Amino acid sequence: MAAEGLSTATPGKSQDRSPNPANQVLCRIRTHINTETEALGCPDQGPDEQRYIIYRNVFDKVIENATAYKNILTSIKQEYEESINVLHKGKEDSLFLRRKLKSMAFEPMTYVAYKKRAMQLQNKIDLIKQNTAELEAHLQAVKRSRDVQKEQTKQTLPPQEDVFHITCIPEVDNLWPEILHADDPSTINEPAYLLEYVERFNKLFDDKQYKAAAKHVANCPRGILHNLEVMERFKAITEYEGHISPLLQFFEAVMNSFSAVKHSPNAKMSFEGVDCALTQNRLDLVIHWIIQQRVTCSEELGDLIYNYGDTEQRNMDTCMVLAQIVYNKCDVHKKAALCLCRCRQISGAMEYIHVSKKFSLDDYLFLMNKCPKSELIQCLTNEWNGNPAVLSTGIAVLWLISNDHEETGFHLLKEIYDSGQDAMERTILNDVNCTLEDWQEIAAKCSTHNHNELADSIFTVLTSQEGGTVIRITTESDNDGAKLIEHIFL
Fold first, then answer.
1. How many CB atoms lie within 10 A of CB 27?
2. pTM (two decimals)
3. Angle subtended by helix axes 452-463 and 421-429, to nearest 10
4. Distances in Å between the alpha carbon of 308 and those of 238, 319, 371, 407?
């Protein structure tokens, strides 16, 4: 539809008399764009797929009629389309990871629900079998009584209340069963009940019934057993049966009782719980706890998950996503952006930086130190989506070559140098945050590392400026090792 209304062929002699055919073509193109965007209801601002298609088709028509610039315009269009394809792929990858995390988060819940339902059904089956056996016994007794010509005695049949005694299937455990089933809940002595509940827990724990004790913790009223002292008691257990440690059972009980106590464990207990789960390679539990917001987020918790991802490379992407969620919730923005970079989402990290507007120079240097990738540094030192560069090129280069990232810094300079002397001049003169003395130091570093062409290019720009400065360049000759000192007077 967008391509049909853009024919630029001259229909008749009347158009040959037009003083400026190019203006007529541009007018038709503008009219076509306005007509198509209004017809499709495209928004005036922001990304929109339909508007992008309209402009892409218009660009094709412009290229067809611009014979002198056809090649360069075609190259520009290809570059833009490749960039847009990369953005689309990044968006699709991000959606895939979120869906994967969401599905993984619900797996533990589904498993627990199925397990609980299976237990209920098994209890019901047991009760049905018990009642069936009792009914069969009753029928046998009736049959025997008829065989003896109704000489039935009390000994022949079991008591009526025993025959038809059917126990109800137990419901979901209540936190306060005595209060709920009491005729008058106001008569319950709450302090005494709480003390009795704690004593029951101590008895189970002393008898080494750790699983039952953990369940007791989950059902405790007012979360009175959700504290660090109880956690330390479970943590001190070294001998136990089964593969699941009592400490992990304790943390599962605390996290699963979130809806009952209406608050998450504190930061210390959240850290200990996640550390326990990761120690036993239960990343599924950590995913569930974080997605369901059952932990208190802290920078230390984010560091724990981040470092686990560094150790377990097969789970790195998942851990980076989880750590990014934690860092974001506790406003550690530089580490949240780092997690996005580690997931190869440089565009996502840049969007996060510009949206948050809370990054300092130290934060950008932190990102470069932890993720010294050329793609990230290019995005930081250049305009991004119409926004000005967030980091000075000179400061970035000087920091890189002074902090064990020399090759990355020299590579950045080499890309500028390869773009021509004008590019180096624009970079230096437009860099308001990096002084000429800083650029002199950069040039000296280039000479020290035998990047003489980069040093010469920088000094050429510096010496072309007005002033009265003497710049001294010291280089080492490759032939005889002699020191050559040049004095350049401005």
1. 11
2. 0.56
3. 60
4. 24, 7, 17, 29
Residue 459 has which token pair?
Answer: 């000094």
For residue 175, the one-letter residue type is L
CA distance 273 to 252: 8
Rounded-to-integer distance, Cα 455 and Cα 9, Å: 54
Distance from C-alpha of 92 to C-alpha of 79, rounded to nearest angstrom: 20
Contact 193, 201 (CB under 8 A): no
Q: pLDDT tens, 154-201? A: 443 334 333 323 233 233 744 444 444 444 445 456 677 788 878 888
Backbone φ and ψ for 274, nearest 5 degrees, come out as -65, -40
Q: Single out the residue of 231, 224, 236 nearest to residue 252, CA to CA.
A: 231
CA distance 281 to 309: 12
Measured between alpha carbons, how far is 61 from 55 in angstroms, rounded to an integer? 10
Burial class (CB in 10 A: 0-12, 13-18, 19+), 231: buried
Whole-angstrom Cα distance, residue 27 to residue 198? 83
What average pLDDT does the structure give for the chain? 77
For residue 335, give every residue at least 6 positions away whose Cβ sits within 8 Å of its Cβ, in sequence order, or none.
299, 302, 303, 306, 323, 327
Q: What are the structural domain ranges in the chain?
A: 4-102, 110-146+155-163, 392-490
Q: Kindly report the number of other CB atoms within 10 A of residue 298's CB atom.
A: 19
Closest residue by Cα to residue 294 from 325, 270, 320: 270
- Is the backbone of residue 135 left (phi > 0), alpha (psi -120 to 50) or beta? alpha
